[in-house]
Amino acid sequence: MAANSLPSIERIAPAEALRRLQHGAVLIDVREDDERAGGKPKGATGVPLASLASRIAGIAFDRNAEVLLTCASGARSLRAAAILQDLDYTRVASVEGGFARWKAEGLPIDAGALDADAAERYSRHLLLPEVGIAGQEKLSKARVALIGAGGLGSPSALYLAAAGIGTLTLIDDDKVDKSNLQRQVLHTDARVGVAKTESARNTLNALNPRVRIDTHEQRLRAANVEALIRDHDVVIDGADNFPTRYLLSAACLRLNIPLVYGAVHRFTGQVSVFDSRYADSPCYRCLFPQPPHSEDAPNCAEAGVLGVLPGIIGLLQANEAIKLLLGIGKPLVGRLLCFDALGATFRELRLPRDPNCPGCGANAEFRGYEDIMQVCAST
Ligand SMILES: [Zn+2]
After folding, report:
1. For 29-50, how does the pLDDT look when each residue is reduced to its tens digit (9 = 90+)?
2. 236 and 260 in contact (C-beta within 8 Å)?
3. Degrees (nearest 5) of the Cα angle 317, 319, 321?
4. Has this prediction a pTM greater than 0.90?
5. N or C: which end of the chain has fewer CB within 10 A?
6. Alpha-carbon 277 to chain mean position
7. CA of 373 relative to ligand 1 center, distance in Å
8. In a 10 Å sphere around its CB, with 0-12 CB exposed, 13-18 middle and 19+ buried, how is residue 304 labelled?
C-alpha cells in the first residue's frame, strides 16, 4: 500500500457523499459482512477491504469513475482509497467519520439483514462463514421443543437461547425443588416451588429477550404429544422417564422431526440423534425396543447423578440441534456417543437401524400412542 499517497486523498463529509452518490458516484462500504449486518449507508455497495482490489473492476470498471469509500469510523476507508489510487483510480474520496457519523447525521440507511442488536449480539456467529447472516437468520426462524426443563434441558435451553433460536417451547409439569439446583442451572434458590417452565422462562428471557419462550406446564401424554411437538424443527429429549421417551420417539417418527436424545446415569451419559428424514437412521426403539419393567428401571432419585454430567450431555444435545438447524457438520445419526465422567473418556458406538425394530422396522405397526406405566429413567 502506498502510504505516501494518503495525504492526497480527498476527505468528504457524509452529506457530501450522499449528494455525490445521488449524482452518479459509487459508494463502497469496506466493512466486513458481519459489521454491515446491522445496516449501511443507503445505496452503498458492501465489499470488505481485503477483497476490494479483486472486486473493484466489477463495481467501477472505468478508472475515471467517481468512487467514494466508507467504513465504521473513517480509518479503513482511507486505506481503501489508497488501494484504489494505486490501481490508478483517479477520483476517489474517503467519507469522514464512517457509518457512525452517517447514522448520527440522520442520513438514509439500508437496513441490514439483522438489526443492530442482533448484529452485535451474534457477531461471533457472523464471523463464522458456516453460520454467517444466512445461518443466523435460519436460527432466528427455528422452533425447538425441549421436553423437560431439568438437568438436560437447562444447559440446552440456555445455550439455544443464547444462540438466538427463534422459539423455544418448554414442556415440563414439575416444580423447582431444592434438590434440583445441584444440576438444573436454569432455576434459582429463590424459585424453589415455582413451576419449572415459569422459572426457565425468567432465566431465558433475561439472557436473550429476543427469543420467544412458549411454555406448557404439562406432562407429555398420548393425548397431547402430537399437538405439543408438531411444527417444531427439532425436539430435544431431556425427559426423566421412559413413558415420555417412548411417546416422543413415536411422535417424532410420525411427524418426521429429528429427535436429539440424551440420557445420564450416575457418572455416565449418552447422546444420539434419531432423524427419520435419513432412510438409514435408527429410532429410539432400535436402541431400547421395549420399555423396562418398573423394577428394572433406574430410579433417578435413588440412583444419583454427578451434577456436571447433565450439563455436558445437555450441551452436546444443543450442539446437535444447532448443527441440524444450520445443516452443517455431521449429526450423531446412527452413532451413540457415550461419555464417562470418571475416566473423562468419550466412546462412540455404531447404532445401525434395526430392521425388526418395533418402532421403525418394516413390520412395525402404529396402533396409536400409549401411556405406559410410569417409571423413572434418571436424569
Ligand atoms: Zn427403530
Report:
1. 999 988 888 889 999 999 999 9
2. yes
3. 70
4. no
5. N
6. 20
7. 21
8. middle
Question: What confidence tens digit (pLDDT) does each residue in 324-366 have?
Answer: 999 999 999 999 999 999 999 999 999 999 999 999 999 998 8
**How many Å lie between the centroid of ligand 1 and the Cα of residue 356?**
8
- Spatial neighbors of 221 by CB under 8 A, at least 6 apart, are 247, 369, 371
Return d(Cα 78, Cα 9) in angstroms, integer. 7
Kindly report the backbone phi and psi dihedral angles of residue 170, in degrees, each rounded to the nearest multiple of 5, phi listed first: -105, 125
How many angstroms separate the alpha carbon of residue 353 from the centre of ligand 1? Answer: 6
- Cα dist from 70 to 23, 33, 101, 127, 162, whole Å: 17, 14, 10, 20, 32
Residues 267, 27: Cα–Cα separation, whole Å: 60
* Ligand 1 center from residue 321 Cα (angstroms): 20
Say if residues 281 and 275 touch (Cβ distance below 8 Å). Answer: yes
**Which is nearest to 100 in space by CA: 109, 92, 113?**
109
End-to-end CA distance of the chain: 60
CA of 355 to the centre of ligand 1 (A): 8
Mean predicted confidence (pLDDT) in 308-324 = 98
Residue 378 has pLDDT above 50, yes or no: no
CB burial of 206-232 (b: ≥16 within 10 Å; e: otherwise) equals eebebbebebbeebbeeebbeebbeeb
Q: How far is the CA of 183 from the centre of ligand 1 (A)?
A: 31
